[in-house]
Amino acid sequence: MDRRFFLRCLGCGAVATTVLQSDLLPGILGGIQNALAFDYAKNLSSVEARYYKKLEGGGIECGICPRHCHVTDLERGYCGTRENHQDIYKTLVYGLPCSINIDPIEKKPLFHFYPGTNAFSLATAGCNVNCKFCQNWDISQSRPEQTDNINLPPEAIPAICIENKAPTIAYTYSEPTIFYEYMYDIASQGKKKGIKSAMITGGYIEKEPLQNLLPLMDAIKVDLKGIREDYYKNIVNGELKPVLDALVQIKKSGVWLEIVYLVVPTLNDSDAEFGELAKWIKTNLGSEVPLHFSKFYPQYLLKNLPPTPQKTLETAHEICKAEGLEFVYLGNLPGHPAESTYCPQCGKMLIERRGYKIYQNNIKANLCSNCNRYIPGFF
Amino acid sequence: MSRVVVIRLSPPGSVENLDHEQYRIFLESGLKNLTGIEDAKMALQKLIPSGTVGMKTNCLARKFNSTPIPLTAAMADFLKESGIDENNVIIWERTNRELEMAGFKLNASSFERRCLGTDTNGVGYSADFYISGDVNSLVSRILTEMVDHNINMPVLKDHSIAGLSAGLKNLYGTINNPNKWHGNNCDPYAAQVAALEPIRKKNRLTIIDAIKVQYNGGPGYDSRYIELYNGLIISDDPIAADRIGLEIIEYLRKKNNLPSLAKAQRPVKYLATAEKIGLGIADIAKIDLKVMMVDNQGRQKPGSLTDG
Question: Do B124 and A1 touch (CB under 8 A)?
Fold first, then answer.
């Protein structure tokens, strides 16, 4: 295959090979499209990474995620985006997104976070896990020299958001933990200009970097990929426990949290797992945290499996509602009633969604317009 | 039995870099002793009869300890003399940057021998994944589409995770996601990478440069742990070649009062795994090892892996 172009077509969501040609950008990136159109990055970045320590006898230990990669000179960690340069650990993706887009916030999905607004969304190459179902494997499993990247420094991003009426920056598509420094600095710049930040993550991140990031985040969506360790080991190539810990840490911080669970046929779709999931969320995070069950489509290394049957998703929905979770959604099922938000008290439809579109919003000042029940989130 | 030939300079430990002519002498002796054919060009023809030939280098340690340019040049000359068109020889690595930093001059043209990275415009990786056990990777198009045969030309080094960096570890540079396959001392991953279909099918010969051996502190360059071993390991069995490389690393570690790789928490497990999946011989008892000491005039005599 030729060198890949991963910069995504704004608004269309598809991989586009010429997206940074200026003719595709007018009206979307405002007055800066020409600068973006011709500013492909020729080199990788060489910015010192945060959260690592030098090891006695040489090498470093990365502390950004629970892998704690030990990396010697000129080698990289598991994510493929951090490299040891004579025991100075460097991030190679700082300021170098390979994918940018303006997405509806519903696409993240975040359903209780300024519904109907847009998010300027970006990603760099790389990921700290290797999910066999990854939809964005072409960037997440690539090294930054294998993607086409543009120069986009943190300070340039708030202006793009303002130009494009996107009140939120979403760090998404791959795994923002691996471009932590870039995300952190963008969020800092955004905060100064009143732009919000939303991290779309697998939650496989160490406690300290997460704790320091939380004050800059307005919302976090965690992909809780399963509720059993063996699933994380065999399908995700990660660990469940640190993700659960991160969920609790995020919830305690007060940053808005939503959870997605991708239902993969035969692998994490038993009634028992849905029950365990609901119980864990209710006990550890509370019943008000929105939970999205998402339909799987055959991708990447799981092309042998069928798409998730609608019935399975509806069963998951029923089980979690029965366990007491108040906001359970079904995703990748456009037009399904469970895409919409209902008042847990009176049952009135509060936000009507079809796909990524909002057709009505009956929440006023976080209250149900029918019974005044408090609806958590930002509306 | 698999045959491995080790050619060492006589007297060993005397030079830091071999020149083109010295490598030519080494290769000539190595090819003859490997095949039992008296004419080195005919020996090479037996291994690589025709087509386009890749030489996968290892340029991680940049100019300090990468696949030597004179070695690739001497091999390219042999290929030309054995009937391979010069432009059908591709010296390659995963990136152009790495090749340049090791001193190679890039050439992606249709004249003379080529030298290019997988990141060269229009090259890249295979469209589809290749899968072997736990490993799923895209493979460089240089290997899948541009060459018919590959000569693996690594440098013998210690590796901070795998224990040994030689032929199998160098094959990580043929795939798009090497960073994913370093867990558990690269076992079983190094074996599984070597078992990926295009790699397994096209790898004809392993030539491990052991002139300057990084016996500790690898795979980058650390001058504190370099020994002038002055050797070249040649085999058509990639596992047996690495197994002999491991013997040399362990010998040099012992000689320099360092613990074995196993004691240093990086046991080389992946070679036994590779033997189990049928990629070659890791059992030292089943390797027909021939060590030759060669001087600058090409005079040969039997030698030993160790200096004692």
Answer: yes
Per-residue pLDDT of chain B (308 residues; tens, 9 = 90+): 999 999 999 887 778 889 999 999 999 999 999 999 999 999 999 999 999 999 999 999 999 999 999 999 999 999 999 999 999 999 999 999 999 999 999 999 999 999 999 999 999 999 999 999 999 999 999 999 999 999 999 999 999 999 999 999 999 999 999 999 999 999 999 999 999 999 999 999 999 999 999 999 999 999 999 999 999 999 999 999 999 999 999 999 999 999 999 999 999 999 999 999 999 999 999 999 999 999 888 899 999 999 75
Q: Which value does ipTM take for this structure?
A: 0.89
Decide: residue A156, CB within 10 A, 0-12 exposed, 13-18 middle, 19+ buried: middle
Distance, in Å, from the CA atom of B192 to the CA atom of A35, rounded to the nearest integer, reads 44
A143 and B176 within 8 Å at the Cβ level: the answer is: yes
Q: Which residue of A has its CA nearest to B140?
A: A1
Is residue A331 within 8 Å of residue A106, measured between CB atoms?
Answer: no
Rounded Cα distance, B85 and A133, in Å: 44
CB contact under 8 A, A72 and B160: yes
Q: Is the CB of B108 inside 8 Å of chain A's CB atoms? A: no
Q: How far apart are the first and last CA of chain B?
A: 26
